[in-house]
Structures are given as C-alpha cells and as structure tokens.
Amino acid sequence: MTRYFYDKRVREIFWQAALLAGLAGTIILIVRNASQNMVNAGMASGFDFLWRTSGIDVSFVLTAYTPDANILALLWVGVANTLVITFVAAIAATLLGFVVGIARLSPNKLLAGLAGAYIEFVRNIPLLFFVLFWYFGVIAALPGPRQSIGFFAVAFLNNRGLTIPVPTDGTAFRIAALVVLAGFVAQAAIAVWAKRRRDATGLIFPVWASGLALFIALPALAFGIAAALSSWDVPALRGFNYRGGFVLVPEFVALFAALATYTAGFIAEIVRGGIQSVVKGQWEAAYALGLRPNRALSLIVIPQAMRVMVPPLTSQYLNVLKNSSFGAAIAFPELVSLFVGSALTNTGQAIEIIAITLAIYLALGLAVSGFMNWYNARTRLVTR
Amino acid sequence: MTAAGTLGVRPVRASLLRRIKADYFATPLNAVVSLLCIAAIIAIVVPIVRWALIDAHFAGTTRADCTGSGACWVFVKARFGQFMYGFYPPAERWRVNLAAVLMIAAAVLSFWPGLPRRALAVPLIWAGFLVIATWLLSGGAGLTRVETRQWGGLMLTVFLSVYAGALAVPLGILLALGRQSELPVIRLVATIFIEFWRGVPIITVIFLASLLLPLVMPAGWDIDRLVRALVGLAFVIAAYMAEAVRGGLQAIPKGQAEAASAQGLGYWQTTGLVVLPQALRISMPAMTNEFIALVKNTSLVSIVSIFDLLGIAQASLADPAWVGMNMEAYAFAGTVYWLICFGLSRWSRHLEAGRKTTH
Of the residues A160, A263, B84, B181, which has the maximum number of CB atoms within 10 A of its CB? Predict the structure, then answer.
C-alpha cells in the first residue's frame, strides 16, 4: 500500500483526479442551484428568445436592423458596432502611438518631454474617466448644429455628433474592398513564395516593395476611384439640424476619442521599448558581416524589434476590443450595452445572454491569444 | 562622446545660451520643432492655469459664490466628504482613517528589509490587516454596523483594490504554477481559467458576478452587492497576475529547480523555497503594473451602481444645486487617480532599478 502512496506516477494521477472531481462537483452544485433558483423565480430558459421581436430602438445601426427585427438581429448590430469602433480606434491609436513613441525618443528634449508627459498622463488615469470626460465634458459642451465646427464644408461636428457625407450607392466601395482583400491575400502568397525561393536558391525578392504596393498604394487607389465614381450625400444645414449624410452619434465620437487617445499612450511605450531593445552592436555586427544598411535593417534589426513589439501590440488590440465595452457606460449601442443591457432587460434571460456575450468576446479574443502564445513559443529564447 | 570626454577631462561648461542653442536650435528643423513645442506647451498650460488657479473661486459655500469663468473649487470643497468617504456616516469616518493608516503601516512593514521570515510574515501581515480592516469598515462586535451600500468615494476605490489584490495575488501565483505544471490536467485547467478571464471584458465580468452569482448560490443565500463585484474583479486580476508571475517563473533557469530536487526537496519545497522567491522578485514590477490596472478598473463598479471615486463624482453632477460642475468634478477625480497610479508606477520602476543593481 505504502509503495503506491510514494509512487510518483500514482500520486500525479491522484492529484489530477482530485482536481477533476472537485471541478465536476462545483459545476454540478452550480447547475443544481441555478435550475432550482430559476424554477423558484419562474424564469424562462433556452434560446427561443433570440427569435422574438426585439422592439428596441437603436441610435447607431450599420446593418438592416429595425425595431421590428428579432433579437438575433439586435445581437448582430451590437457585434457590428463593437467591431467597427474597435477597428477605427485601433488604427487611430496605432498612428498616434507610433508618432508619440518616436517623438519620445527625439534628441530634442522639448519634444521628448511633451511626448513623455502625454504618455504619463493617459496611462495613469482610468479609461472610464476619459470616456465620461469626452462624452459629458467635451462633446456635450460643443456648440449646437447652427454653430457647428465644419471640416472642409463636408463634415460637421456639433453636440449631436459628427455628420459625415456618405455615398448614395455603396457598390463601388464594395468592389474596392474586395480588390483590397485580394491584394492582401496576394501579398501573403508572395511572402511565402519569396521565402521558399530564398531558402532554395538564395535569391532575394523585395517583398517589402510588393507589400508597400499591395497594402498602401492599392487600397488608396481602389478607394480613391470608388470615391470619385460614387455620388455623395453631403450633409447640409436645414432649419435647426443637418439633413443628409450619416450621423456618427456623440457616443461614438466620445468612445472613439477616448479609446484612441488612451491606447495610444500604451502603444507609444511599446514602440519606444521595441526601438530601444535592439542594441547598437547588432547593427555593427551586421555591417561587419558585409550587409548593406537596408539588409541589416530588414534581416537583423526589424526581426528583433518585432519580437519585442508584436506580442504587446497584439495584446493592445485585444484590449481595444475588450475596452470597446466601456461604451456601455455612455449607452453607445455596442455588444454589451445592447445585449447585456437592453436585451437582458427585455427578456430577463441573464444566463443565456451573458453566456452568448462572453462566447463572442472569447471567440474573437482566443484567436488572438492563441496566435500570441504560438508566437511567444516560437520566438522565445530557448535555454539548453 | 567628445575627445575631452574620452580622456576623462571635464569639458569647459558652455554658457547657458550656447547650450540651449546647441540642444534646441542646432538645425533649422530642430528650431522649428522646438518653437512648435513651446507654442504647444503655452497653448495647453496657460488656459489650464488660468482656469484652475488665477480665475478660480476658492471661498464660499454655494453655487452663487462662483461668478467668473474660472473653476469653482467651492463645489469640490462642499462635496469633499462624499468624494472621500461616499455615504459613510460622518461620525464613523475615523474608522476609515484608521484602516487607511493600518494599510500604510502594513505596506511599509512588508517592504522593510529587516523583516524576519519574509515569506511567512508578509502573507500573515496582510491577512491580519484584512481581518481588522473588514471589522473596522463594516462594524459589528462593538462597532456600529455600516452597510457596504454606504461605502463610496476614494475609500471604496482604495479598499476594493486592496481586497481584490489580496485575493488575486495568491490565486494568481497558484494559477501560474498550475500553468507551468508537468501534470497535463492541472496545466489544462489553469490555462483555461487564465485565458477565459483574460479574454472577456471586465464590464461583462462585473455584470456576470452581480447578475449570476446570486443565481448559483443555494436558495436563501444572499451575497453582498460589493462582494459580488469584488469576486468578479479578483478573478480577472488573478488571471492577469498569473501571467505576470509566469514571466518571473520562465526567467528562472531550470538548473535551480533541478539542483533543489537533487538536494531531496519535494515539489512544494522546491517551489516555495527556491523557485518562487526568485521568480516573485522578478515579477514584482509586472505585478505592480497589474495592480495599477486594477486600481483603474475598480472604476467600472459604477456600472452596477456602486459609487467609487469616479462614480460619485459623476453622480454629483446630477445635483440641481450645482449645475455645470463637470470640469471641476472630473479634474478632481482625475488628479486623485493620477497621483495614486503615477506614484505606484514610479515605485514599480524603482523596484525594477533595484533589481538590476542587486544581481
């Protein structure tokens, strides 16, 4: 008997079995309590509610949703709004973050100091503060429609939001988006092909040149042509408000401004750390091996800087996705405020609604997290 | 480096004017950048100073005492008690102050270099503090009871952070060890737990905790509203803490654990006596950063109508006697958050610098 007690393998199996049994017990207890409580409270269960008419009016809709549609359609409105705010805020935060991060390293101490002050300011205050500040402090204090702040006489900012022109027919833009997507796929294929050829023959293909063309020139060209071909619905002041165009509601503008400026502070620190992490000796060693400056940059310095920068950058984009839920604090109709807020109040099915919401965030987030762990395992310095 | 510098000769100090010229106006581009920066600083600082100091009103008790365009600090003065203590009964506020003093004492004691048996003493100090603080704040056993519904303001922000942190650190260490474990089931369970809580927004977790926790409890059990939010926050932060600790664990060479095993130490002895003390020292700055994130994220409890500092500042804007005090309330709350988080981040950097010199 004692022989088994001291056997390492028996003990390992015992502890793991004990953990599983404990977990199973907890889950059974939770399910029993929950079902008992739901019966007592007369709560409904199941996912039938998704096909019920929602009746909820939403201020910011990008899909074909109307209050007559079902709750599933409402869910998609929330998902679409979450993805849109995440996407635009992440792009703006990256641009601002790179500018501030590089400015932080400027030899001009005034510029570096300003960038440093910005970083320390946004990083040490809660995001919720910025969301409330932009919404109640800035947007609410803007002038009314008649005294709007105009941008090139096509977009107008006032306390009812930002009114922007929209094309009357989106076909040209849809085609442009497809072309851009095809360009991205082509670039991925070129990169794979170029690496295979380099491994096999040693010949170098300028992947960055095709990348520049396919990632920047092609989208600019495609959307430029689409913009020129489409006819535009430009907002114009009629009476007390703007007619025409598309209104980005104040909640959208406030959440976008807060997310972009807040995340930029974190991205700036990542950029600074990435650039500083590559020691000068790496450049010198590359030159000593006879590499030209651009080769040294692309083969020696960038891969090492990226090893430092990509995982935290990815996690910042993940943070933007999760932080878009702060929209619930100012009732911007994103996933949490529409589904966990409005839909839950209407249906009362807390378990199902929270489970669906968590599952959506996890599905989006776990994909990124899995990629990061794979990247971390691949690039981690291996000891022995 | 200049030739004089390499020879160890002190270069002659250039005059101030010359140095400014060399540092900021050496090239035309540099001069333009410097001038733009000066313009930006003036454009930002001057209106703020005018609003917050020069044109501001400090004296008085009501809205009518603020007449000009500057800040109305009378509002903050009138609301100060609420911003600090929420709706905690004024006669009992000494208990909050005492708990805060004890907290500072506990923090100082746990970082005092001469502390004997640190690995045992630090958890004991904090466990003792939490028991005493809970008694002081909520009452009972000789003290008047104060419902958690009456807690609020900065006091709630601070104690919610400390309670959640105290739960999250041990749980996070266990999770990090589980994730590094050689036993596949334990590793899988820890990994799923960590990735689940890291993958979902904190707002949804707070909703989850406040809506579903009462549902999964046996019928008739009621959990305090604040405790629900606390449990939700603690789980999320534990997952983040676990990743911070894992960074430290990964930095310890395998040879350390192998050497300890070779001495005949078992798993818990190897971990507790050899690996963790080294790993935690490396993880401290990262864990402090997670704690800063926690302090900032406690502001989310205002979503479920628990009024922390930011929540109570926002709620005070609805007072009809003080219309239009948005900027004053935000400026005050923002400054307090900034001071706390900036102080903590400086301290984290100090820890990092200290680590570099000791090795």
Answer: A263
